[in-house]
Amino acid sequence: MARGLAAGILVVVLLSSTGALALAPPPRPAASSAATGVVDYVNISATSSFAFTPDSVTVTPGALVRLAVTQEADFLHTFLLSPEADYTIPTSSTHAQLLAYFTAHPPIVNLSLGSTPGAVFYANFTAPPVGTYEFVCIVSGHFEAGMHGTLVSGTTSSSGGMSVTTIDIAAIVIVIVVLAAVALLLRRRSPPKTPASSTMAAPPPTSPPPTPAPSTGPPPGR
Fold first, then answer.
1. pLDDT under 50 in the chain at which residues?
2. How confident is the model at residue 195, as a pLDDT?
3. Residue 173 lies in a domain
4. What's the CATH number where 38 sits?
């Protein structure tokens, strides 16, 4: 019975870790506060060639992000981070359309970088839930020239968009621990092996020496 119970626990844990028992996708981490205790430092430059360098950065969902944007040009740039996950702003968007979009979707970060080369602007925010978020410069003509990039929150796998999170790592650890416990339980429950009984054959019985037959002739002469 103990062996069956251990096997049942193992099946439940394995199915849970692979998502076979999940009736709904796991909730995304809240972006209201940096409860993870993780701090990510992100440095981006706004160049005079209408580009952000780097144009892609990665943060940890729920982490406190300390952003520093350096103005390298001698003309105005802005930095706005979209709040919509996995949404790409159409590259054909005009200045007016960008303004309308961010009016309807208040940006996570909204910086005006001025026009002084070397000036650094800072923003602190909580990394949003898992997904890809676009940041852009909305100065007229700059976005159209290619001045935009992406902030990736979390690490996305190449097989269906699943993300590697702390929960996934914990599930793997649980599976390993349960497997070890089941193996130990089965080993303890197994009956001890009995030593093989001796099967040495007994020596064959020895036959008694034959008794001589009585003599019936006359006694030998003197």
1. 2, 5-7, 9-33, 156-165, 198, 222
2. 55
3. no
4. 2.60.40.420
The answer to the question of residue 60 being in a domain is: yes
pTM equals 0.57
Q: For residue 49, give its domain range.
A: 34-156
Residue 75, both tokens: 């003309």
- Specify if 175 maps to a domain: no
| Cβ atoms within 10 Å, residue 129 | 16
Count of structural domains within the chain: 1
